[in-house]
Amino acid sequence: MTDRFAPPPSRGCSDTPVLKQRGQHEVFCGLTGIIWLHRKMQDAFFLVVGSRTCAHLLQSAAGVMIFAEPRFATAILEETDLAGLADAQDELDRVVGQLLERRSDIRQLFLVGSCPSEVIKLDLSRAAARMTEKFAPRVRVLNYSGSGIETTFTQGEDACLASMVPVLPQSAARELLLVGALPDVVEQQAVGLLEAMGVGPIRVLPAASVNDSYGIGENTVFALTQPFLTDTHAALERRGARHIAAPFPFGEEGTTAWLRAVASEFGVSQELFDTVTEAPRARARKAVAQASQSLNGKSVFFFPDSQLEIPLARFLTRECGMTAIEVGVPFLHRAVMAPDLDLLAQGPVIAEGQDVDKQLDRCRAARPDLSICGLGLANPLEAEGLTTKWSIELVFTPVHFYEQAGDLAGLFSRPLRRRNLLKLEAAE
User: Fold this and answer.
1) Are 162 and 176 in contact (CB under 8 A)?
2) Is the pTM of this model over 0.85?
3) What are the binding residues?
4) Which residues contact 282 (CB under 8 A, 6 or more apart)?
5) Beta-strand relationship, 140-145 and 388-390
6) What is the C-alpha to C-alpha distance for residues 228 and 230, in angstroms, rounded to an integer?
7) Is the Cβ–Cβ distance between 81 and 55 less than 8 Å?
8) Among 95, 118, 131, 270, which is most buried by a count of CB atoms within 10 Å?
9) Which of 3.40.50.1980, 2.30.30.60, 3.40.50.460, 1.10.1780.10 is the CATH number of 30-151?
10) What is each CA distance from 375 to 150, 341, 390, in whole angstroms?
11) Quick one: CATH architecture of 175-281?
């Protein structure tokens, strides 16, 4: 079998000068990651130490009914806590005690910092250590920050997974660790393809249960499934694990390159690799070709929001025929992004960070056919006649690996088709 996607560009974007922006930025709260993480870890509970605004955000984002029993909640910081008139640590101990008494199914408890708890300098790491001592071994208590003051919304997952790495036991076993929270059906597809090649044992972070725990050591190799897991990447390397660098598994090309990097690490023959991937690759190529007809020849502009921007720009330009004008990322981590930058042909501006007013001016001047941005920018740009795509949908929707490649292209083509339909209706 031969590769049918475009050959790598003679000069990718790895050496392209980066436009570094350090001005006002538009971000969405990192607490949002709880919405997909609490579904993934079945015995975990996420207790946000924050305000009523934090509670309303989570309830709205998750669409949780008032009588539901989700695995997240908010420990509300009242006026007395914020004013320093009450001992917030004592209050937190009381709330956690009540929670664990009522919910005996909790095996992992995450104390999640928010903007209010960070402003008053509430030491959640000290609280987590104290509670671990009290409730171990039945409950493991960890903490991380989900504050949106300086971070983007996907960094909540990164901080959560990074907090889990130090407590994993030491191991000398040679194992593959897949890192990143994926929908169950997508994770099963990835694991199924690798196991069909004879790759294993395979572990995942995060695991569904604390009972699925495993060790980390110098014989552990890990492959990231999400490009925003930079802190987790660093935490795993500190434990001695080795990263398998690869483009991210978006589209047929990215999925094949990601699988091939893992297969090479485990000595899988080219013949076996082709046998396992040939049919799903063909389905992915066909699905992308059908879904991307309205994308071919169109231009795209990425605002920095999710950290998915560079691999998605690679997918859209190489598999869907689009032209990237600017690719903005919240933070450019070279060790993680290099394989995708190598495949992204020179041409677009690569921007790190954001000065939102200046970037809006560049977008307005370029008039792209499609702008990928956060919720806060979409409506104003639409009002100015620009077609937009919410970047948050690309995190909530299954888009990884072969079987979702057509759906991924469809997420970008639908706004353009909608715009065309509106124009036709207006003309009539």
Assistant:
1) no
2) yes
3) 29, 54, 115
4) none
5) unpaired
6) 6
7) no
8) 131
9) 3.40.50.1980
10) 17, 26, 6
11) 3-Layer(aba) Sandwich (3.40)
Inter-CA distances, 355 with 150, 299, 318, 351, Å: 13, 22, 28, 10
Q: What pLDDT band is residue 269 in, cutting at 50, 70 and 90?
A: very high
> Which tokens is 205 given?
């972070």
Which of these, 247, 201, 257, lies nearest to 227 by C-alpha position?
247
Task: State the CATH class of domain 18-26+285-427.
Answer: alpha beta
Over 158-183, what HEC string results?
A: HHHHHHHHHHCCECCCCEEEEECCCC
pLDDT at 222 over 60: yes
Q: Nearest to residue 155, comparing CAs of 411, 329, 412?
A: 329
Break the chain into its structural domains and give their ranges. 18-26+285-427, 30-151, 175-281
Return binding residues for [4Fe-4S] cluster: 29, 54, 115
**Cβ-Cβ contacts under 8 Å for 143 (sequence gap 6 or more):** 110, 111, 112, 113, 124, 125, 127, 128, 163
